[in-house]
# Entry
Amino acid sequence: MNVLVTGSSRGLGKSIILEYAKNGYDIVINHNNSHEEALKLKDYVESTYKVRALVIRCDISKENEIDDMIEEIYKKFGHLDILVNNASIALDQDFELKTKKDFMKTLEINLVGTYLLSKKIGIKMLEAKKGNIINISSTNGIETTYPESIDYDASKAGIISLTHNFANYFAPYIRVNTICPGWINTDMNKNLDEDFINKETSKILLNRFAEPQEIANLAYFLGTDKASYINDSIIRIDGGIKR
Ligand SMILES: NC(=O)c1ccc[n+]([C@@H]2O[C@H](COP(=O)([O-])OP(=O)(O)OC[C@H]3O[C@@H](n4cnc5c(N)ncnc54)[C@H](OP(=O)(O)O)[C@@H]3O)[C@@H](O)[C@H]2O)c1
# Structure
């Protein structure tokens, strides 16, 4: 069994890769900028878990790079069992200063990248009559709070819509599900100021941000047969929000 996780040399993607590798899956580590981290992760999983690991640089907003990545995976692994669409950016900026260019950049990576990968790999999975697609959206895709992330929120809401169309088109062979995490302790939040973090933490029933491993546990579970009847679902994992 094997898995491609986009944006997986660091953050949540890395935790998801480690969880699959720990359970014996061959893995594809995709990155855009973090090449050193990707190579270190490859060495680590190969030596620790004795699985095969590919490292592929691909900017998922570029269709030709996606095509090259898919070709390389199928050439080296012959097939793909699981796609995890994890890579994304969040450009938090003043609402009035955000430009069309900013908005489009976020959509191209977060939404269009997810669309192209799911469509192209999903068609191959459909030919094989088996496969599994797991998307990482966000609670921001369900409810929006801060206009600074208007583009990010739209991209994450779009992923929820893609989930339903792909689950429908690829049925009954491919399960397609989406995870909507709340706050996670990753680099994405490293520039948040302490007061803001405290304010957001106070809204969470568990009174803390998630560790990436806690989201990776769910991303792994959805890829296994234990989740065999979970399909077309939007699953929220946010520690409980005070209402
Ligand atoms: N952190 C949170 O609080 C939170 C909450 C809800 C949902 N999420 C979602 O969880 C997922 C993982 O987030 P994270 O917190 O781990 O983010 P992160 O620490 O900022 O990591 C982002 C990852 O995406 C990759 N990436 C960005 N642009 C890319 C591109 N054009 N092509 C390929 N890869 C690209 C990065 O790779 P390089 O370093 O190689 O560029 C990196 O591996 C995202 O979908 C995010 O929206 C996060």
In short: The chain has a mean pLDDT of 97. Residues 6-7, 9-13, 30-34, 59-61, 86-89, 109, 136, 138, 181, 183-184, 186-189 surround NAP (CB under 6 Å).
